[in-house]
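User: Fold both of these, please.

Assistant: Here is the first one.
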Amino acid sequence: MRAVVQRVLSARVEVEQATVGAIERGLVVFLGAGQGDTERDVEYVADKVAGLRVFEDDLGKMSRSVQDVGGSVLAVSQFTVFGDVRRGKRPSFDQALEPVEAERLFNLFVARLGLAGVRVETGRFRAMMRVIVDNDGPVTILIDSRKMF
């Protein structure tokens, strides 16, 4: 499972020109499930996101998590994080998980963040979405469960 995580001042997702999810200060997580991903991958990525220390403390050091600052997460399912361009310039998405199982794992990710006490908003699975991000920093982190060991 891969997550591209951005620290934001605000963000929202629109589907057919209607806002379906929005947050103020927090994290936007573009989440993709890949072939072979399981609930263990979900747990790893969700725990990393919930505890990711990318918010500044009083000394300007990144030592606070989204939980510490009372922020929220906007989770957006995005199979394109598994785009592979090693053989040309047109991405292959062969390593992305099929949609039914990917949606199940995405929903588990959202639920796990909620259980950790993080307020979570989402986009809409398999919809064409417009994501508006007011990136803060910018701070962008890649989390890949296949690199957990």
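And the second sequence with its predicted structure:
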Amino acid sequence: MISNLPNLISLLRLLLAPFMLYIDRAYLPLFFLSLALTDALDGFLARRWHAETKMGKILDPLADKVFLLTAFYLCSFELKRLHPSVFFSLLARDFFIISGALMLWLRFKSVPSPSFLGKMTTWALSLSGFLCILYESNTFNIFLSEVCLLFVFLSWMDYGIRGIKSLKNQTFF
């Protein structure tokens, strides 16, 4: 049961993100920005009101993944502004993170916390997705593709190293 506002905001982002594929392109930047801002809002409210929940620790990153994967599918295949490798690398990284988190959940019965680099990656990818939607410049979008791939790779390695260390030390991060 979702009983607090931060979780409702995360659920709303999760459910609305796929609509980016169907919304009129004229309204897409505003719609995207609204969804991106809900990510900051739900986390702020959860901390401010001391309303952090186990459900929120699962729902928020899941909503982020659906939001970003939808945005990068849109930018790569619908708008054709980013190289498809950005979408596929993000998809592979998220599969890796979810699989690792599930393994850690089964072993430690706790949800892993996002790393600082993971949070920065979400922020950088959100900004890149927004800029990709706004601008059609091939040169700029090649630069965005490279920045996104760098952040995806670094966060993937960070989560992998943290997961291996926690399993090796029999501790939970």
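The longest helix spans residues 138-168.
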